[in-house]
Design brief:
about 1100 residues, alpha/beta, 21 strands
Length: about 1100
């Protein structure tokens, strides 16, 4: 029986004030012998879910509350006594947050009364003065017996006198006093960190903090006995803390989350409505003759959905998808939802789970009792429409996005702590520069020695120690890119809602882990660039060729498409266009959809590190036989030739091979998908290996299996996810094979996206027999369009968007001005469109005036002759008459035309590509004299011969799984060549490789089947030759796949690389960046 309970505790969710996490505080409370402690962060309840989770781990009860600092300077702790009172508090905080905007909470005294029922309020006094008397009277008027006043030590002269005066004042006012400890951290040694976060918050160094530093260094959690000893003169105030903890019975587990009741069909419950929709949909799908497999699967799923009560959730997602289809926004479900037949027949996903034998339990299982997770990808330009539609349909009181807690990573921690401790900027930068990418480990002593710094220096050592402690501490809250929480009753009855930084958006205070813990359901509305591109392609196909096709129509395998994929002719397609994928495709030779699913999943660091790729390829090529020690494993692994490639297979192996229950297997999957604890998979090793040996498997087989599963740890890929991606890969390949003209135009309109630059996309289309026409002021619209030709394909007309520096608004004016009659001269364009002279100059740069036989040089000359603005009277008359008066026409001048080479280089400068010729055609004679082979001739050269090939650099990559090997792709006028550089050769020639725009690769030819590589010994900079082409420097711009110019995340396997916590079920931007920065996909190759 304890005589004191701590009720005034800040966690690190009081951003940059508290210095300890709820886990640390509760662990300390358990050691000190507290039965319960109250959590009261300032103006927020962001930490209460973590505290509730800590309660389960430590057995110390968590009393959820908050602290409000009012505008008049009074401060109160608020604790709910029951579930309705919790809603009073969350509604109050919502009022304050709406008023203050993102990250604040502004409340006045008069706001408290409407939301006071069932709430205990503890006033935090300053001094025992008149102000405090008034505050006590106001407190009693609103809260009555539920109003208390806190007594806490400030460790200043006269503290005992102050506490005594306050206790008397409270007694006189008829308000009961209660002792609190005013806790900021869990143990005294965290005080240094507390000073550092205060300095970060105040934007100054620790030395300059002065009086802004916490007045009292005694703010750690103290034992109940110690508190009783300090306040033994006030036994009633001590007892009050215990009484309050008894009255406050509210537990977060009571938050009965209610999903919105979807009323899609009147008079039917959600379950009946879903059943009806699914039955009708499947009958439509098969024209009334439904195969038994489908009816059985749907019955099985509907039974589970009914048991768990998830029907409304499915209806919501169906409603969102239906709305997107109605608006013509392309979308597709992905993630584990692809395992569901109900989702498939309703059109939420386009993967047929019966055909592909996917495991429904991976998505919804009766044992896990956790809400399903359906992610829906939308084309990212129009995703905002859907987000706003959700807000309008469900109401702003019932829908909000979840939060993302942005936490310190190693780099930011070193920078902020260094700044707070007063280290010079260049020193913190060089320390932070040693941290590779975004690791979770701080800077070690070895790295400090590399910088020749003195590790004995106290400040430096302290910086590194505190930076390590700061990693993982919340820095600020931001919004999630698309995870919605929807409720039936008011959402702010469950959790406070605050406005987000973007207008018309709002977020709740909890992130997706908190929501999982409380079993709330969320709907994910995510953006995917390739879907936008495919939607444009389908629309163009219908408009220009009259062929109506959608993603869902492409269910059957087309041998011709797979023949194209097997030749690695996949430039521009989704997921299978990277270098690694292209060199794998001819060995895999995909022949059906499932091969493509494997192809998407196998070129990932996980399978590569788990050593699954080579065994799989050898078995596929028939060089070795798959081994299945037991028949039950054969059933699980047969479709991937005995190599576990997917998370679902890992789960099944654990179930049938080692006797895990499905729930344990699911924990194994979670350990593989997230690194909540580094090495999360490893503690399953004994259980898995021993379990398999007991069941009669050879030990070496069991150990090898575990090693393969552990390789997944860094990046396992769920089968359903791979299937959803493969679907888009197949659709894009189908389009590329059958309609390369449409594919090229759609891809050019979606730039920048994918792996390659526009020049390669256009070149690839021309290699496939598509005519590409240059931008033209009379024929081009803003986007690339298709034009009739006599040939097999339509011609692609490059849009005005391709001209560098021309704005969309000016482009629209130009297109609008020629609606009735075409332009006849440069002056005519300028007058009628009314765009500034600079825009006309950009058009001349892009050689867009060739339709009235004005070449680039003449165009630029004529632009020089234009005034600053047309004379207004003449211009107005011309617009009305749609003609062009003779005022100010320049006489024609014969100019010397540009050389062909110069024209090509100018094309690259203005359009990033040239339709005239490849720059290398002009220097081929010189290259031949130097003995350089053409890229296309590599096919006729014997394996092992020494050659030199030269070309413009397209892509440079150093994937981490390749242990520092550099892959480089170059292009000449005949084709492309792939080079490989070993790490020592790369380091020796690093500057040339990183900076040259045109290189020669000298080395040995290596052939494996159709795959040809040059193993480079030397890289030669041929920039001088390229310069000679147009007597000017070559504007070298690579595509997004080139890691030399577009660095992505740190590479796996690089020194110092440590995987961060990362849940695969989330698009790769869970770094808590702002969604607006993230939505544009940086690259589609996830190295």
């Amino acid at each position: 029986m304890t005589h004191y309970v701590e009720l005034q505790v800040l966690t690190h969710f009081s951003l940059l004030r508290g210095a300890s996490s709820p886990d640390e505080l509760f662990a300390a409370a358990a050691v000190l012998g507290y039965p319960s402690i109250g959590i009261s962060d300032i103006g927020t309840v962001a930490g209460v879910v973590r505290a509730w989770e800590a309660q389960k781990a430590t057995g110390v009860r968590s009393i959820a509350g908050t602290r409000v600092d009012l505008s008049c300077g009074r401060r109160l702790l608020l604790y709910p006594i029951n579930r309705p009172a919790w809603s009073q508090i969350t509604r109050l905080l919502t009022v304050g947050k709406k008023r203050a905007g993102k990250g604040g909470c502004l409340l006045h005294w008069h706001d408290l009364e409407p939301w006071s029922e069932g709430v205990i309020a503890i006033l935090l006094p300053h001094e025992a003065d008149e102000e405090n008397l008034a505050a006590l009277a106001d407190l009693k008027a609103i809260y009555g017996r539920r109003g208390y006043m806190a007594l806490f030590q400030r460790r200043r002269p006269g503290d005992a006198v102050r506490i005594d005066a306050l206790a008397r004042q409270a007694g006189g006012a008829g308000v009961r006093a209660v002792v609190t400890g005013d806790v900021l951290y869990h143990a005294p040694d965290a005080r240094l960190l507390q000073d550092v976060v205060t300095a970060v918050r105040e934007k100054c160094t620790v030395d300059e903090l002065g009086y802004r530093r916490e007045v009292n260094a005694d703010r750690a959690l103290k034992s109940p006995d110690e508190m009783v000893r300090r306040f033994r003169a006030y036994p009633d105030a001590l007892q009050a803390s215990v009484d309050i903890s008894r009255i406050c019975t509210f537990d977060l587990g009571e938050l009965q989350y209610q999903y919105p009741h979807e009323k899609l069909i009147d008079g039917l419950t959600a379950q009946e409505a879903l059943q009806k929709l699914a039955t009708e949909a499947v009958e439509r799908l098969f024209d009334g003759e439904v195969p038994a497999a489908y009816t059985d699967q749907i019955t099985h799923e509907m039974r589970l959905i009914g048991e768990l009560g998830y029907a409304p959730y499915f209806l919501t997602v169906y409603a969102i998808v239906r709305e997107a289809r109605r608006r013509g926004i392309l979308c597709q479900g992905r993630g584990s939802a692809a395992n569901s037949c109900v989702c498939f027949v309703l059109g939420v996903t386009s993967i047929d789970p019966v055909k592909h034998e996917l495991l429904f339990e991976r998505f919804v299982s009766g044992e896990r009792r956790e809400p399903p997770d359906i992610d829906v990808d939308f084309e990212h330009e129009r995703r905002e429409e859907i987000i706003q539609w959700i807000y309008e349909t469900y109401g702003r009181n019932h829908a909000a996005l979840t939060a993302v807690v942005t936490r310190y990573r190693a780099r930011g921690a070193v920078r902020d702590v260094g700044k707070a401790l007063g280290l010079p900027e260049d020193l913190t930068s060089s320390l932070a520069g040693l941290v590779w990418g975004w690791s979770a480990d701080g800077v070690g002593e070895k790295q400090v020695e590399e910088l020749n710094l003195d590790i004995g220096d106290r400040r430096l050592r302290l910086t590194l120690e505190l930076a390590r402690k700061l990693i993982g501490v919340p820095r600020h809250m931001s919004q999630h890119p698309g995870g919605f929480v929807l409720t039936h009753d008011r959402l702010d009855d469950l959790v406070p809602i605050e406005p987000a930084a973007m207008e018309d958006r709002q977020i709740i205070e909890w992130d997706k882990d908190d929501i999982d813990a409380l079993k709330f359901m969320k709907v994910d509305v995510l953006g995917l660039g390739m879907l936008g591109c495919m939607n444009r392609a389908f629309n163009m196909l219908e408009a220009d060729k009259g062929i109506c096709v959608g993603l869902a129509d492409l269910q059957d395998d087309d041998p011709a498409v797979y023949a194209m994929i097997s030749k690695a002719d996949t430039l521009g397609t989704f997921q299978i266009e990277s270098r690694a994928q292209m060199s794998m495709l001819p060995r895999m030779k995909p022949r059906r959809f499932y091969d493509l699913v494997i192809q998407v999943a196998i070129v990932r660091p996980g399978p590569i590190q788990g050593d699954m790729v080579h065994p799989y390829l050898r078995r596929r090529e028939g060089l070795e036989k798959p081994e299945y020690p037991r028949p039950e494993l054969r059933a699980v692994l047969e479709k991937t030739l005995g190599v576990p490639l997917f998370q679902e297979q890992a789960m099944k192996v654990a179930i049938v091979g080692a006797g895990f229950t499905p729930a344990e297997a699911d924990q194994l999957r979670r350990a593989m998908a997230t690194f909540k604890v580094t090495g999360g998979v490893s503690h399953f090793s004994e259980k898995l290996i021993e379990g398999m040996v007991e069941r009669g498997y050879p030990r070496d087989f069991a150990e090898r299996t575990f090693r393969q599963l552990e390789g997944f740890g860094s990046y396992g890929f769920p089968e359903s996810h791979a299937a959803s991606f493969a679907k888009i890969s197949y659709a894009s390949s189908w389009m590329k094979h059958h309609h390369p003209d449409v594919f090229c135009a759609a891809l050019m309109n979606a730039q920048p996206m994918g792996f390659y630059a526009p020049a390669q996309i256009v070149r690839d289309a021309r290699d496939h027999g598509v005519e590409v026409r240059p931008p033209c002021v009379n024929a081009s619209r803003w986007d690339c369009t298709l034009e009739k030709t006599g040939g097999r394909y339509l011609a692609v007309r490059l849009g005005l968007r391709q001209i560098r520096g021309l704005s969309n608004a000016d482009g629209a004016k130009i297109v609008g001005a020629r609606e009735l009659t075409a332009f006849e001269s440069v002056e005519d364009v300028w007058r009628r469109s009314g765009v500034p002279r600079a825009a006309i100059e950009k058009l001349a740069d892009g050689d867009a005036f060739h339709s009235f036989s004005v070449d680039r040089r003449q165009g630029l000359w004529k632009v020089r002759g234009l005034g600053d603005a047309p004379l207004p009277l003449f211009a107005a008359a011309d617009r009305v008459a749609e003609t062009f008066s003779a005022e100010g026409i320049e006489p024609d001048v014969a100019l010397r035309p540009l050389t062909d080479g110069r024209e090509v280089i100018e094309d690259y400068r203005a359009l990033q590509l040239s339709l005239r010729a490849h720059p290398l055609t002009f220097v081929r004679d010189e290259l031949a004299r130097r003995g350089v082979t053409k890229c296309a001739d590599l096919a006729n050269i014997r394996d092992g011969r020494h050659v030199e090939v030269a070309g413009i650099v397209l892509v440079r990559q150093k994937p981490g799984s390749a242990k520092g090997v550099l892959f480089i792709t170059i292009e000449d006028e005949t084709g492309i060549a792939n080079g490989i550089l070993w790490p020592d050769r790369f380091e020796a020639q690093r500057r040339t490789i990183m900076s040259a725009s045109m290189v020669g690769m000298k080395g040995r030819v290596q052939k494996e089947g159709e795959i040809i590589h040059v193993i480079c010994d030397r890289i030669i900079d041929h920039g001088d030759l390229l310069h000679r082409v147009g007597d000017m420097s070559f504007p070298h711009r690579t595509g997004r796949g080139d890691a030399g110019q577009h660095p992505g995340s740190p590479d796996r396997g690089d020194k110092g690389w440590k995987p961060e916590t990362r849940n695969q079920y989330w698009p790769p931007h869970a770094d808590g960046m702002d969604p607006e920065e993230v939505v544009r996909f940086k690259s589609h190759d996830f190295h």
